[in-house]
Amino acid sequence: MIKSAFNEGRRLTSKPLVKEHALGGTFLLVVLVLIGSLLYSTISWMWDDQRLPLSKIVLQGELHYVSATDVQRAFAQLDHVGTFMSQDIDVLQDMAESIPWVSHASIRKQWPDTVKVFLTEFHAEAIWNGNALLNEEGRVFDGDIGKLDEERVKLYGPQDTSEEVLQVWRDISPKFESLNLTITSLVLNERRAWQIILDNGIRLELGKESLQERIERFVSLYQNLGSDTQRVSYIDLRYDTGASIGWFPEQELEQENTDD
C-alpha cells in the first residue's frame, strides 16, 4: 500500500517537471529564432548595395606627385565600388598601386562610408631610356617626367639592365665629382659598350672592358688638359693605353663663345 502511494506521488510530481522543461525549451527556441532573424535582417541590411556605400576618400602619406583626384580616377575604373561590408580591400589596393608614382598602398575602411588610403611614392633616382624612371633599387616605374622637381641623370641600357647601369653610375660618379664634373647621361648599348656624357658636353667612349681603369685614365688626362678642356668634343678611351681626343673646330668654338 505504501509502495503504491509512493509511485503515484512520483507520477504526479513528474508531470509538472515535463511541462516546465517543455515550456523552457519552447521559450529558448523562440529566443534563438528571434536572434537569428535579427542577425539575418541586420546582415542583409548591411550588405544591401543601397546601404552604407563607400563615398568618401581620405588620402594620407607624404605625397608630391599623387593627388586625391588620381585616386578617385583609379577607383572609378572599377565596374562597381561596393559598400562598407561588401567591398574587397585587396581590389582597392591593386587599383591604388596601379597609379603612376605609387610604390605601395595601404587601404582600410572606416565606418560607415569612408576609405582611408595611405600611399608611399617611388623616389625617382634616374630617368631610364628617356621615357621611364628608376627608383633607388633600379626598379623601372612609370611617372610623369615633367613633374620632377629637379634634374635627374639619364641612364640608358637594354632590357633588364637597369639595376646594373644604376649601380655603375653610383660607383663612378665620385671620380667625376672630384673634377667638378657631373655625369648627365650614362649609356650601356646592345654591344655592352659604355658611353658617358658630361655636363660640360664632353662625350667619353669607354668600350666594353676595363671600365674603371679607363675612367682613371680619363681623370689623369683631364687634369693635364687645363684650359684646353673647353675645346674637347669627345675622348675615346677604347685603347689599351692612351686616348684619342676630338676637338671642336676653332670657328665653331668662337661662335659658341660669341653666343654666350
TrEMBL record:
<dbReference type="InterPro" id="IPR034746">
    <property type="entry name" value="POTRA"/>
</dbReference>
<protein>
    <recommendedName>
        <fullName>Cell division protein FtsQ</fullName>
    </recommendedName>
</protein>
<dbReference type="GO" id="GO:0090529">
    <property type="term" value="P:cell septum assembly"/>
</dbReference>
<feature type="transmembrane region" description="Helical">
    <location>
        <begin position="21"/>
        <end position="47"/>
    </location>
</feature>
<dbReference type="GO" id="GO:0005886">
    <property type="term" value="C:plasma membrane"/>
</dbReference>
<dbReference type="GO" id="GO:0043093">
    <property type="term" value="P:FtsZ-dependent cytokinesis"/>
</dbReference>
<keyword id="KW-0131">Cell cycle</keyword>
<keyword id="KW-1003">Cell membrane</keyword>
<comment type="function">
    <text>Essential cell division protein. May link together the upstream cell division proteins, which are predominantly cytoplasmic, with the downstream cell division proteins, which are predominantly periplasmic. May control correct divisome assembly.</text>
</comment>
<feature type="domain" description="POTRA">
    <location>
        <begin position="52"/>
        <end position="122"/>
    </location>
</feature>
<comment type="subunit">
    <text>Part of a complex composed of FtsB, FtsL and FtsQ.</text>
</comment>
<comment type="similarity">
    <text>Belongs to the FtsQ/DivIB family. FtsQ subfamily.</text>
</comment>
<dbReference type="InterPro" id="IPR013685">
    <property type="entry name" value="POTRA_FtsQ_type"/>
</dbReference>
<dbReference type="Pfam" id="PF03799">
    <property type="entry name" value="FtsQ_DivIB_C"/>
</dbReference>
<dbReference type="GO" id="GO:0032153">
    <property type="term" value="C:cell division site"/>
</dbReference>
<dbReference type="InterPro" id="IPR005548">
    <property type="entry name" value="Cell_div_FtsQ/DivIB_C"/>
</dbReference>
<dbReference type="InterPro" id="IPR045335">
    <property type="entry name" value="FtsQ_C_sf"/>
</dbReference>
<keyword id="KW-1133">Transmembrane helix</keyword>
<dbReference type="Pfam" id="PF08478">
    <property type="entry name" value="POTRA_1"/>
</dbReference>
<dbReference type="InterPro" id="IPR026579">
    <property type="entry name" value="FtsQ"/>
</dbReference>
<keyword id="KW-0997">Cell inner membrane</keyword>
<keyword id="KW-0472">Membrane</keyword>
<keyword id="KW-0812">Transmembrane</keyword>
<keyword id="KW-0132">Cell division</keyword>
